Amino acid sequence: MSSADKNLSVFSTDGLPDISQATFAIVVAEWNHEITEKLFEGAHATLIRYGAKPENIIRANVPGSYELSFGAQVFARKIEVDAVIALGCVIQGETKHNDYINHAVAHGLTQVSLTYHKPVIFGVLTPNSQEQALDRAGGKHGNKGDEAAMTAIKMLSLV
Ligand code: RBF
Questions:
Q1: Which of 64, 77, 82, 139 is the most buried (most CB within 10 A)?
Q2: Where are the bilayer-spanning segments (predicted)?
Q3: Is CATH 1.10.3210.10 what the domain over 19-156 is classified as, yes or no?
């Protein structure tokens, strides 16, 4: 069953932790920036909506999604950072590199998370087209940036 008609950003908000003192780093890939900017706006708005202070949200850009792992590592190793959100968009079909980039980022972010014992959230869209990307960046399927931020908040309740 496909998710063609679903807003994928519908999630439960029961029992969320207090994040008023938490510090988040959002690392944003500049490739497909018209998409990743919307992901950032969604992630930032969700963190604020659920209690994060604007001054406790750090933003950093990296050139492309492949660089998200290193960008995430830079912040995960900082003692004051509680969670890292990595945002990118790798459109399939535009490049045969997509599988390599996606796998490398997924693996890299997992490694950073386990190494620094902090939530590192995979907010990388892997759509087949620009249209599918827009659908997931504030369009009919919601905003994956929102979801990534909510995932970070939920994971903090474990730490
Ligand atoms: N980065 C992305 O974030 N999204 C892409 O769709 C994307 N496509 C790429 C296609 C090719 C052929 C190459 C060489 C790079 C691409 N990148 C993309 C950039 C990649 O993540 C990284 O910034 C560069 O490979 C430099 O390490």
A1: 82
A2: none
A3: no
